[in-house]
Amino acid sequence: GVQTCALPILAMEQRAWAPAATLYLSGGGLGARADAWPEALDWLAALPGGIALASLASHDTTQARSLQALLATRGKRAEVLAGSGDEPVSAATVFLCGGDATLLAADLNRAAKIRRWLDDPAKCIVADSASAMALGTRAASCTCGGHAIRVVDGLDLLGGLSVLAHAAGGDDPRLAALGAGPLLALPVRAAV
Question: What pLDDT, on the 0 to 100 scale, is given for residue 36?
Answer without folding.
Answer: 74
